[in-house]
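Lecture notes, unit on binding sites. The following record was shown on slide 14. It pairs a sequence with flavin mononucleotide.
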Amino acid sequence: MGSNGENVIPLLSPYTMGNFLLSHRVVLAPLTRQRSYGNVPQQHAVLYYSQRTTKGGLLIAEATGVSDTSQGYPDTPGIWTKEQVEAWKPIVDAVHAKGGIFFCQIWNVGRVSNYGFQPNGQAPISSTDKGLAPQVRVSGVPVADFSPPRRLKIEEIPHIVNDFRIAARNAIEAGNSLFPQCTYVQSLLITFSRAIISNKVNNESMNQAYLL
Ligand SMILES: Cc1cc2nc3c(=O)[nH]c(=O)nc-3n(C[C@H](O)[C@H](O)[C@H](O)COP(=O)(O)O)c2cc1C
C-alpha cells in the first residue's frame, strides 16, 4: 500500500509479459551506443550487455538497422548481413547464460539520415519528401544534418516490409526473442520489437507493416 492508500506493485516482483516470465520489472531501455564499428556489433558488447543482465530480467538491445538504407547514426549495429548476425550471437548467448531475456530492436531511421549514410549517396527514404531541421545530438555529432528524403512509392513499400521480415528472422537466428510492440515516433519508418511507424505514413504502408 502506498502513502496515499493506493495499491503499489513492488518493482522487484515478477511480471508475466506474453510468453515471458520476468522476475522483476526493471527493464534495460533500448540505448543507441554507437560502438558497432562498420555497423557490426563488437566483442565489447558481450561485456556491456551481460553486465546489465539479471536472471529473469528483460533487456532491449540498441536500435539495429534492417538494411543498408536504414542507417542514420555512425557506428550503430545492423542485422541484415550474415556477419552482423554472427556478431550478435555471442552477445545474445552471454545474456542468456545469465538467465536474461533479450529483444532486438530493429529499425529503419527513415528521414533521420543523410546522404553520407545511404548507399551510393542516395536520398534517405521516407513516407514524406519533407526534410528535417538540423538537430543537436547528445553524443558524437554536435549537430546532425539531414538530407532531403525521398518519398517511397507505394510499390516500394513491400521491399521495406521484407527488410523487416528478414531482419526479424535474422534476430531470431541470432537467439533473440521477438515481441512486436507498436509506438508512434515521428520520422522513423518502422521499428520492431518496438514497432515504430512514422506519423506521416500512409494507410498502405500501415497495412503492410501489419503483414509482418
Ligand atoms: C543516448 C540514448 C540513446 C537512445 N537510444 C534509443 C534507441 O536506440 N531506441 C529507442 O527506442 N530509444 C532510445 N533512447 C530512448 C531511451 O530508451 C529512453 O530515453 C528511455 O526509454 C527512458 O525513457 P524517457 O527518456 O522517456 O524517460 C535513447 C536514449 C538515449 C539518451
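Take-home: The first strand starts at residue 15 and ends at 17.
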